[in-house]
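Private note to self, pasted from the team thread so I don't lose it. Backbone tokens:
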């Protein structure tokens, strides 16, 4: 049983202002696996004050001093990779291949990238007699989700540290264990007191207090579009910067001239990866009419082979959904798909009688107006739609409120570029899916977000621009 009953504020582990606790469930067993302290606005206020006080000195540190801190964090992180992987499997049900692989290793990759970018990042640029300076924006409120707990902490904390910002982190209360270990890494690395602070809590108790706090200069939020709207509203009263990576309903387009083996496996990965709990999942699978029947048949066969079960088993491909609410939400979408006459060809049920496991589910003959083609399901539910022409599929791909990602599978590179040019999405993959360049920007159009993360774009996210003009 894990008990994380203190917050990390001003370089110390401290008790909450009010003694409130929250039980954390293990999604594999449905049993309570731990307990965390539940913060309030008073705890947020203490953490923000610590961050504000630390900003005066941390913002004035040299590039070399900040590089030393990041290098120390990298060394400490590498010591704790096994602990982090166990925590991710326990808190959100990620199988070992995923938890010990991408879930944890991305934290190393993003840190190494932040170090490389910081070494050469231009904080000052001369334009004639005018000097343009990029300064740290100030105190940052960082609010992260449960589906990629370490990755989303990493892509916010590292660039904030690199640019000289101070911060208060609110990780998801659903998956808090890895955030605790990450904070222990920060402490062991010697990050100065007050620069990084951690307060556990839920959205109403901590998220609102953090995003509306007058001494917070920026909020970086990753989560659902619905929650992102509320964060923006809370932040608006103090006119602070808001950076958001939100939901998606990403089109994944397969042409008949694609390498069919690669496209089928790629589409399977694009949807079912991480139990289907990815904001950029290829959740609207458009397949050209010429190859539609073959593609559907083979995709169903692939889904039936998918191994669902205990995430601690080495051969498991798919673990449970993260909690009861998420399980109920996904099952509700499956019911809607059936009621709206989409053709369910496999799955649709629960796996076992304990844990939040859902069968890999495939719907065919899905149309654009169906709920499962419009709303973000965030689970292992594949929706396959048919199309005839390039122009048709490009237009249909854009008929969504979202614009996070897209993909196209074809051997015709000119056709691929045509789709990439026309789709309104922040990332477009060609003959691949979820292939990330840690130095390239990631973020969305429309209701999928504001701003970009990763690489130098991420550092720019945490800076404010000052113009100094000198009359010669």
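Design output:
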């Amino acid at each position: 049983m894990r008990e994380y009953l203190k917050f990390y504020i001003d370089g110390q582990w401290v008790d909450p202002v009010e003694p409130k606790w929250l039980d954390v469930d293990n999604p594999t067993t449905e049993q309570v696996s731990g307990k965390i302290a539940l913060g309030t606005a008073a705890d947020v206020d203490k953490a923000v004050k610590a961050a504000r006080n630390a900003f005066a000195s941390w913002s004035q540190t040299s590039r070399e001093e900040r590089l030393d801190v990041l290098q120390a964090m990298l060394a400490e992180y590498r010591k704790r990779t096994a602990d982090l992987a166990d925590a991710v499997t326990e808190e959100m049900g990620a199988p070992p291949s995923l938890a010990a692989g991408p879930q944890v290793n991305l934290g190393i990759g993003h840190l190494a990238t932040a170090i490389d970018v910081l070494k050469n990042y231009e904080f000052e640029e001369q334009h004639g007699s005018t000097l343009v300076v990029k300064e740290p924006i100030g105190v940052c409120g960082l609010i992260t989700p449960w589906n990629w707990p370490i990755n989303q902490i990493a892509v916010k904390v590292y660039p904030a540290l690199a640019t000289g910002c101070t911060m208060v982190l609110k990780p998801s209360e659903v998956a808090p264990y890895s955030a605790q270990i990450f904070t222990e890494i920060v402490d062991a690395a010697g990050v100065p007191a007050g620069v990084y602070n951690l307060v556990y809590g839920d959205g109403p108790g901590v998220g609102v207090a953090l995003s509306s706090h007058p001494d917070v200069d920026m909020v970086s939020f990753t989560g659902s579009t619905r929650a992102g709207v509320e964060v923006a509203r809370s932040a608006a009263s103090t006119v602070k910067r808001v950076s958001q990576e939100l939901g998606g309903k990403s089109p994944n387009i397969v042409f008949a001239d694609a390498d069919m083996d690669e496209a089928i496996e790629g589409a399977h990965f694009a949807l079912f990866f991480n139990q289907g709990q990815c904001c950029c999942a290829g959740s609207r699978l458009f397949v050209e009419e010429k190859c539609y029947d073959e593609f559907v048949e083979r995709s169903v066969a692939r889904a039936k082979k998918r191994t669902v079960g205990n995430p601690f088993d080495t051969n498991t491909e798919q673990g449970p959904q993260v909690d009861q609410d998420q399980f109920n939400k996904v099952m509700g979408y499956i019911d809607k798909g059936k009621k709206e006459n989409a053709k369910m060809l496999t799955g649709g049920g629960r796996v076992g009688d304990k844990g939040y496991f859902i069968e890999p589910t495939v719907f065919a003959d899905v149309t654009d107006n169906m709920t499962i083609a419009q709303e973000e399901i965030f689970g292992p539910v594949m929706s396959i739609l048919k199309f005839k022409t390039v122009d048709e599929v490009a237009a249909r791909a854009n008929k969504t409120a979202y614009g996070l990602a897209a993909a196209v599978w074809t051997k015709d590179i000119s056709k691929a570029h045509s789709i990439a040019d026309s789709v309104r999405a922040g990332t477009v993959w060609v003959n691949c899916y979820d292939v990330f360049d840690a130095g390239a920007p990631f973020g969305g159009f429309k209701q999928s977000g504001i701003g970009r993360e990763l690489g130098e774009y991420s550092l720019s996210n945490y800076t404010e621009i000052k113009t100094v003009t000198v009359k010669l």
